[in-house]
Structure formats: structure tokens, C-alpha cells
């Protein structure tokens, strides 16, 4: 019995060994013969005597067909294209099958008459200048680092944002959001430079020519385009819109776009970002027309004056007088510094030292609070100002206020204070100025002031929060 068991065990081990040594084989479905793939391309001569309306229909189940119909591309099972201009159009058809890609025989159709009704629309005119004309566009960032209309060359939206004048304020689903960064403070979104030009034409056909000066791999292109005025989409063939190189490999399809907005002077188009590149999103590129760019004159725009509570008096009254001739203000131990936009809205939700610690990068911690409150500035109604910092260093000088702007200009003194162990510190602008951007009351008395230091590049202030002693 023991011998039988040993024999059986040896036999099973041999079978397992032979099985483990047998090569595994795999097979894909064989590539379909193109003669087995059926489709129909017909011209509707009832709709257009010239055959301008073309219907493409996939009649092969389990196969996806891609139609490249000169003015655009589609993979719909049934696609209807309306050619505005007469001419010969060669439609290329590609099949995606279980066995791979199959290139099918192209089909050439002839359109014998123009039907300019298909491009006689305000959106076509805004994009191209109209039938028989052309219009040139630039990415709104030039070699000098100037954006002439938008805040920068590129904005970010959710995947369900589209035509901004429709839907729920441009929202057509659940994933709707927007970030419109100012390029000066976010230069990482696009390199400074001359991006070249792109020209949309309706002179003899819907032609698109591009000159990618910042993208040598694209260079100069000549292709076609199609504007779907109902879906508010733009597709191109053999030419690609101007764009920064930073997102080159992160876009699903550079030749399939959403029109976000279109006016006489501006154009915004959106492409879908891949999920593998920080998550899916709509990358929106901002363009200005050549005419707008050529006639643009930089405007001198003064910073807005945030609405602040002066307690019924003037800035001088706020700073220096109540029932006394001098007021002393101490740097807040809870929220000593922040940033705000030009209207005084704080950019970080920091209300306590715990908020700074949670942020992780401010360098301000609870142990700094005892020293921070020792930083003080005193304003007197005779125009004198004095400071004492947390190290006991005192300074004095004079100040003047500017009516209507809430700007304070210092002379003979530049108020500076350390903020504990943080890398941040209190200081003034190169012009030795602060601007009051925000105030807050306790009861009927203004007890909190945020002095703003204007950033020389970004449209924002670094603000310092002082509390009335």
C-alpha cells in the first residue's frame, strides 16, 4: 500500500511539472478584412441640389468607424456634414475592430454648388470675419509678458463647463468650477514669448492656417475647420490651435474643442485634460484678434479702494484720534498676516494661530504669539509716527494720508516688524507706503485694521493685521 501511494504521488508531481513547463498561448481576434466592413456615404440632393449635405452611416455591428471628412472628424455611428463650399471632398474612413485598426478605401464626393447659408451665422462671422474674408488671432500673452485683455493666456474650468452664455452660467452638469489665474503671479502656466498666429478663413473654404512660433514641432500648418453653431464646438483637421507647450501631452484631443466664448475681439476655446494629469479638467485658452491687439493701448487703471469703515471720520481720525491725540496699534497675535485681492477680500481663511500651523508653510506657530504682540505702531494727530518692535528697537518719523485712496506714506521711517519665527515680516512698499484695505469694529469702535503692501507684480496685497491697544 505504501508503494502504491509513493507511485501515485510521483506520478502527480510529474504531471504538475510537465504542466508548469507547457507554454501558454494567447490569441487576438483576427483582423477583419476591409471588405467585411460595411458603411454608407450618401449625398442628400433634396436638402441641397449641389449635394452639400452628406450622411455617413456605419452599418457594421461591433466596429467603430472614424470619419475624417476634411473639415473635421467624428466617430458617431451616423454623422451628417454640411459642406458650404463646392469642390471635391475625400472622406477617409478608419475602422477600429477587435483585431486592430483597418484603413478602408476613401470615398470622394463632389459638391457642385456653394451653400453659404451653412456659414452665414454670427458665430462664423465672429470667428472668421465672414464669407470671403479671414481673421487672425493671437494667444493673449506676448513676448513682453503682457496679456492685453484677459488676466492671462489660460484659465481652468470643470469638465461640465462649456459655452459660458448658456446653461447655468456656463454649467451643464455636476463638475463645474473655474480658476482664472493672473499670469504675472502664475508664470508656470505658460512660458513668456511670441506664440505666433492662427487665421480662420472663409475665402473659398473653411481654411485654418497656423504659425506655431513657440512650438517648432508644429511649425506652420494648413488645414480646415468646422464650427458647430448649435453644439458650440470647434473641430480642426491638419492644423492645431496655438497653445503653450506645458500641457502638450496632457490633452485628450487638441483638434476637438468647446467654444467657451466668442466676441468681435476675443475667443476662448477649451480642450479636455487627461485624468492622469492632475485630474480631468477643461483647459481654456484665451485669444485676442489681431485687430484688437494692433489697436490696444495700455490703460492706466488705478487700484480700487475697498470700502472700509472709518467710523464716521477720516483716515487720520481712524489712525490717531478718538478722545486722545495718539492711538497705538499692536500686531495681532491670532492672525498677523495674510494676503488679499485688490478689493480687500482675504485670500486665506486664517483666523487663529492653529490655522497657520495647519497650513504648514507659514512658519507662524503658537510660541510666537507672546512676542508678536510686542510689535506696535503709534500714530499721532500731528503727523508723527513711532514704532517699537518685539526686540525693543524703536523708530520715529512722520506720515501723511491720501484722501480717497486710504494710502499712508511714511517719511523718515519705514515700519518693519518680525513676525516671530516665521519667514514672513511686516514691511512697506518701495514707495514706503501702506494702504488700509480692511477694518473691523468691536461695538461702535474700529478696533482692527489691515494695512496692505501692494505686490509689484500680482494684483494683490500682503496684509498686516493690527489691533487697537
UniProtKB/TrEMBL annotation:
Superkingdom, natural source: Bacteria
Q: Which UniProt keywords apply?
A: Signal
Signal peptide limits: 1-21
Q: What is this protein called?
A: PKD domain-containing protein
Species this chain originates from = Flavobacterium saccharophilum
Amino acid at each position: 500500500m505504501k508503494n502504491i501511494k509513493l507511485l501515485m504521488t510521483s506520478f502527480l508531481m510529474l504531471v504538475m511539472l510537465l504542466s508548469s513547463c507547457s507554454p501558454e498561448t494567447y490569441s487576438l481576434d483576427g483582423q477583419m478584412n476591409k471588405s467585411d466592413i460595411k458603411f454608407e456615404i450618401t449625398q442628400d440632393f433634396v436638402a441641397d441640389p449641389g449635394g452639400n449635405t452628406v450622411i455617413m452611416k456605419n452599418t457594421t455591428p461591433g466596429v467603430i468607424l472614424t470619419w475624417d471628412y476634411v473639415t473635421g472628424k467624428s466617430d458617431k455611428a451616423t454623422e451628417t456634414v454640411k459642406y458650404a463650399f463646392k469642390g471635391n471632398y475625400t472622406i477617409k474612413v478608419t475602422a477600429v475592430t477587435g483585431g486592430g485598426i483597418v484603413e478602408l478605401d476613401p470615398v470622394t464626393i463632389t459638391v457642385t454648388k456653394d451653400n453659404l447659408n451653412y456659414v452665414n451665422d454670427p458665430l462664423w462671422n465672429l470667428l472668421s470675419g465672414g464669407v470671403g474674408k479671414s481673421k487672425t488671432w493671437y494667444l493673449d500673452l506676448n513676448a513682453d509678458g503682457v496679456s492685453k485683455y484677459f488676466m492671462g493666456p489660460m484659465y481652468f474650468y470643470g469638465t461640465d463647463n462649456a459655452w459660458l452664455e448658456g446653461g447655468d452660467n456656463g454649467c451643464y452638469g455636476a463638475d463645474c468650477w473655474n480658476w482664472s489665474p493672473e499670469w504675472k503671479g502664475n508664470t508656470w502656466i505658460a512660458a513668456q514669448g511670441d506664440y505666433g498666429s492662427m487665421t480662420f478663413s472663409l475665402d473659398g473654404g473653411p481654411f485654418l492656417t497656423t504659425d506655431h512660433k513657440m512650438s517648432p514641432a508644429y511649425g506652420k500648418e494648413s488645414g480646415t475647420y468646422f464650427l458647430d453653431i448649435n453644439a458650440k464646438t470647434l473641430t480642426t483637421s491638419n492644423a492645431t490651435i496655438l497653445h503653450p507647450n506645458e500641457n502638450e501631452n496632457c490633452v485628450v484631443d487638441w483638434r476637438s474643442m468647446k467654444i467657451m466664448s466668442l466676441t468681435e475681439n476675443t475667443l476662448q476655446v477649451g480642450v479636455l485634460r487627461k485624468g492622469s494629469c492632475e485630474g480631468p479638467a477643461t483647459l481654456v485658452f484665451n485669444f485676442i484678434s489681431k485687430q484688437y491687439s494692433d489697436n490696444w493701448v495700455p490703460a492706466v487703471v488705478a487700484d480700487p479702494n475697498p470700502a472700509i469703515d472709518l467710523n464716521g471720520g477720516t483716515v487720520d481720525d481712524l489712525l490717531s484720534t478718538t478722545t486722545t491725540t495718539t492711538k497705538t496699534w499692536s500686531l495681532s497675535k491670532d492672525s498677523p498676516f495674510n494676503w488679499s485681492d485688490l478689493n480687500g477680500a482675504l485670500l486665506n481663511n486664517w483666523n487663529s494661530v492653529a490655522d497657520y500651523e495647519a497650513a504648514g508653510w507659514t512658519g507662524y506657530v503658537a510660541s510666537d504669539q507672546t512676542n508678536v504682540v510686542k510689535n506696535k505702531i503709534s500714530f499721532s494727530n500731528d503727523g508723527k509716527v513711532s514704532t517699537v518692535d518685539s526686540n525693543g528697537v524703536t523708530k520715529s518719523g512722520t506720515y501723511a494720508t491720501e484722501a480717497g485712496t486710504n494710502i499712508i506714506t511714511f517719511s523718515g521711517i519705514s515700519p518693519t516688524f518680525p513676525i516671530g519665527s516665521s519667514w514672513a515680516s511686516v514691511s512697506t512698499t518701495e514707495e514706503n507706503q501702506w494702504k488700509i484695505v480692511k477694518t473691523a469694529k468691536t461695538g461702535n469702535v474700529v478696533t482692527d485694521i489691515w494695512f496692505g503692501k501692494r505686490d509689484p507684480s500680482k494684483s494683490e496685497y500682503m496684509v498686516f493685521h493690527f489691533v487697537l491697544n
